[in-house]
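Appendix B. One record, verbatim.
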Amino acid sequence: MSESIQVTQKQQRKQQLLQQHQHHHYQRQEQQKHHFESSCYLSSKSSVSQQSFSTFKTSSRRLKTSVKTEKGQEVIKLSPLPKRAKRTYLAMDKDKEVIGYVIPVFRASHEEVRGLMEARDDDVTEEGINYVAMRNLFVREAKEAMSVRVEKKTRTVHIRESAERVALSRTMDEWSEFRKKMNPDSLTHHPEFIVKPRGQTAWEGKNVKLHCTVAGWPKPRIAWYKNNVLIDAEAHPEKYTAESNYNMHSLEIKNCDFLDTAKYHISALNVKGESSFFATVVIKRFQEGEEAGPLDPKPHGFCPEYGVTFETTIIDKFEVAFGSEGETLSLGCTVIVYPTVKKYQPEVVWYRNSTPLKPSKWVHMNWSGDRATLTLVHLNKEDEGMYTMRVNTKSGFNNHSAYVFVRDAEVEVEGVPVAPLDVRCHDANKDYVVVTWKQPAMEGSSPILGYYVDRCEVGTHHWAQCNDTPVKYARFPVTGLVEGRSYIFRVRALNKAGASRASRVSEAVVAMDLSDRARLRAGPSAPWTGMIKFTEEDPTVGVIPGEPSDVVVTEATKSYVVLAWRPPVQRGHEGVMYYIEKCMAGTDTWQRVNTGMPVKSPRFALFDLAEGNSYNFRVRCCNSAGVGEPSVATGEIVVADKLDLPSAPGNPVATRNTATSVVVSWGASKDVKQLIGYYIECNVVGTDVWMPCNNKPVKQTRFVCHGLTTGANYVFNVKAVNAAGYSQSSPNSDAVVVQAAISVPGKPSGVTLLEAVKDYMMLGWSEPAKNGGADIRGYFVDYRTVKGDVVGKWHEMHEKALTTASYKAENLKENVSYQFQVRAMNMAGLSKASLPSAALECKEWTITVPGAPGGLHALEVRDTSAVVLWEPPAFSGRTPVNGYYMDIKEASAGDECWKAAHEKANKMKYMKFAGLKAGSSYVFRVRAQNLAGVGKPSAMLGPILAQTRPGTKEIYVDVDDDGVISMVFECSEMKEGSEFVWSKNYKAMTDTSRLTIVNEKGRTRAIFNSPSLEDLGTFSCVATNTDGISSSYTLTEEGLMRLLDISHEHKFPVIPFKNEMAMDLLEKGRVRFWTQVEKSSSACQVDYVFNDVIVTQGKKYTMNFDKSTGIIEMFMDSLEVTDEGTFTFNLVDGKAKGTTSLVLIGDEFRALQKKSEFERAEWVRKQGPHFVEYLGFTVTSACDVLLRCKIGNVKPETEITWSKDSIEIAEDDEEAQKIERQEGELTFNIGKWIIKQEIQEEKGQKKAPAVDVPPPPRPKICKKDAGIYDVFLRDDRGKDKSTFNLTDAGYQAVMNELFRVIANSSTDIQVISTEHGIILYSNVTYCNEELRVGWLHKDAKIAASERVKSGVTGEELWLKINEPTEKDKGKYSMDIFDGKDGVKRVFELSGQAWEQAFEEFQRLKAAAIAERNRARVVGGLPDVVAIQEGKSLNLTGNVWGEPAPEVCWTKNDRELVSDDRYKLKFEHGKFASITIATVTTADSGKYALVVKNKYGTEAGEFTVSVYNPDDDENKEKKG
């Protein structure tokens, strides 16, 4: 039988298997549900399409094998269906160890959700022909995408399969025609909730079941969500059970716990759309005792999944924060979750005003595993609010909240309002959207006149203003949008000063019809490639639409009116547009408003209406068939503001909260509509500036105003705001001082027994750790009897409050046990009771040692010190208490870390601890001692944090102008009822005769009435009701003496002098006596005294007293012999006196007299031409030696003369050219080289011949320049002379300075290589022959030799090393004499420097050898040879080379060979000759003698020119 090769697809094999398994698979398919994540879409089944599709779906997962039968036919067999692996939700680590359970979180789009839900199998339902066609199309395309396989089949098999395909195709066509006639697609409709799920409240541990009934065709797919997270009931059968029977659906939540409190919603979806509904489930927890408050720790329950109870602690909490617009603000907390479970992390959620935040470009969230951070980028006022961080674990949750305030950015123009906020879009349609916003807190220097709304199309940067006239309402309808485009909006406020900055832009909104928007939200109707619809001719085409209904006015202001209506029922399938008509009240004339273009949206805003007039409105529909009938008119509408301004809020009440905040509460505005919120303003009493407390309106009637100044006095008012504007401000609140609020104190602690007798017991306890902001006014003690495990009722022991932390409980029964508890009281009320004491038996003690001290408390807590005070024990033992021992330890240390603070017993009832560590916490206890021993320790005090409270001030001592000594203490945190209490040695002061206390606001002064040794001790002051603000001052005997001295100075003051009397010499030899006082009054008088005799102003004395500067002066023209003695200034200023003197006698007076005479002579000298600076010398950086002086008071006619060795330098002398004068300065350049030609040119003479040109420049200075130089100044006013001795010491000083300049100008040593060796050199500006230069190698002086030489060439100092070797490596130094110690330059000739220099030396040496020995022509050859034709030419060239070179001759670059014509010879290795017999013109050309050896090649070129004499004669004749 012949075989054929045919290309078949997988579709043919599936169709063959379809007929074999059709009936069996159809029945099984009705009972089976496909997996939730099926890869194909299947919503309903039919007998044909379901089978074919199921076969395709099954076969796509099976392996195919080809088996040959006995007859040789090839049969395709399929492997058994693989079992789908059940999805696991166990979290495993790399070692495959189960570490947790993963809850699948839904994060898919609508299309993915619909695809997942619609992949489930349902009961067999009817389906439309459209659906069959779509599914077959999808299946066929999927099959065509399969791989192609080539198989061999017999012709019989091929014909049979073709016949079966034809039959199958015919059957499909019949079914298609049948379903087309039935057309059930007209029955489809979107899902609809018939019975909606209801919210429920249940106790923990109970089951909750949510029910609903949903109708829709095709049958909707159902999905349940918890807080928008998909619930997978199959993955969590122990927690959820989801059922669906006959359109009734239910979700059962088993064993509910607190975390099941959530918002649940059910979603129903089919090809027509999606519907959903929400239900809230609240799970309550039964708890005994008081209900937990909002700030109490949240409950944590056992987590069975991990077998632990997670406890969450939040530390490093963020506090109330302040920021400004445009800034970046970060909030953060550290979260500790215990115990730690591998790979488990809690969920951190951030909220603003109870609304969860999501990451965006404005909000960044970060969780590092132990710290949660929220960053607000580019703050805006919309970001203001209460921020909450909530940490969710599987055992519960914990949270922390704080308010964030956002201040307005600085305005660009003073007086303009700040930007509006919270711009939102509402009721968006095809060409219309309503924009709303909130008014800002501050209107600027004048009320807001209105607002401008700007729009911008998404994707562009062009902003267009939507309204030409500012709108007063915070709501504006924007029209004229382009359908399908997205827009963003912003708003600006306007007042008389100008426009504000723009607000933050709104979210983007699309101009689109509501029905189109709903279809977009529902998503496409099918997830496959397309949809095939079979429709007949639409009978509604060409029908005029009906009239709209329910035309209403949704908004009406004096600026615009907004209409809304419902589209008509009869409108066909084409789009409908609308015309709006208006009619003045009382008339029948209707006027069309939008004549140019009908609107597409069922909303319309009308502008340009006359304010106060009444109008009727109606709407008509239109389409391509025409305009329909009008709707029912709205009735008369008055164009005016329908929304009134809110009324003023009620009186605000401000109460203290913290040291920087105040709680403000007020009455709500009455009869207010559409309230946006309230703004609170504050004002410091005594100023006119009102500041906003919030920049985002709040709706509650209570607000905490933060960021206030502690101690300042504030008043508050409130104003309400709605879309119409601001209300009137409420009345001002009563003034309130910003201080921490007073609350009831904390509980006392440590109730202990101090002493017991037969019928009474002495009790003691510790003060509360917190006093509630007010001093403890007393205590109340309660008691109850105890018999075994039975306790009685509590009874009060006394009626009046106790003033000490101890109490004698009397009238008790002997041998009966009692328990006691204590309550503290302050001005706010009673605290909670302390923990009951242990059962204490009332029987007499027989203890000999004292009891435990009580009443421990700390004062003056600082970073490194603290003072602890206590009360003596109530029971002193057999003998009186004679001392105390104090123990201390860090709070975190164990009991074994207690250590004694001192060795000897302390007899005082206080002790100051020093040497504490700042920031550490300590606890203290005290033990009392008597002769019998040391008693039990007291109750522990602390922990006390060693930290200086901010703003704490110390007591300081002040002595006023009257000499009164006082101690001053200041406290800025004084509250109502706070007082200053002074004590001495920490005991109440009973003797008031020693001190007088004067209290002012926040300051107290303790004045010593009569300071004496009786006042020595430690004075302390405590500010009550301030949480222990205190300070002390220890007055010692030394300190008292110092204060008494200061007091005496103040009582009997002395005029202080800044300077004692001094003397100055002035020009002309005048003498100035002067002093200066620190301060003086205008009544200060001065007596000028000489040798106890008061002198007055006259010819000899001149006096001056400048009271503004305090300078006192007395002038004398000269000092005479009779002026020797004592000069005194006596000052009197009220009761203050001052004296200062200057004694001028003996040698001191005579020296001063000589100086005075000298100064007078100098003054006389300076009246004529004189030297300001006498003749001296300087050496320039160019090593020029200059003699220089400065002259003054010179006229043009002043004669200036230079001389050397008393010989005047005339103008025509060569030396005169070295003299220069510039701006009162004369210079003489000693080393200047003057060329004779220059001198002659200056004299106007003829230029000298070259022979007269002098030799090279002379040295800068030499021995012949030595001499004595003089400069004379003369004119009719006088003369002056200056001399400089340039000999011996003077000459040596000049040379030393020259050497210094030369030495410092030397450069760093450099190295250069030559063919002979290595040269080290340094350059200087100038080198003098007397300059001493020494070279050292390895710190040893280098001796001159043939191989190593040093010297100077021009300005270069060098050291030459010929034929260097390895021994020459090392450090080289050059010492240049600079007149003192010398200047050293060092060079390290080793390493890379040596290698490079030595390598270069070898290279140059080799190159020099090659240059010396290379082959070259050394002479004998002319450049040009002219020879007559017919003559013989013989040339010989001298050559050199070692080794002897090779020689050849070339003509015109071609080598010549010795023959009969050219005879070439090379003799003795030195002479090369060429002979040309009988030359002809052909021999003319360029010849060369080329020599060559291994070192190089050289050519000696010459030109040979052969001429004919006859030819030359003929040319001359012709010419």
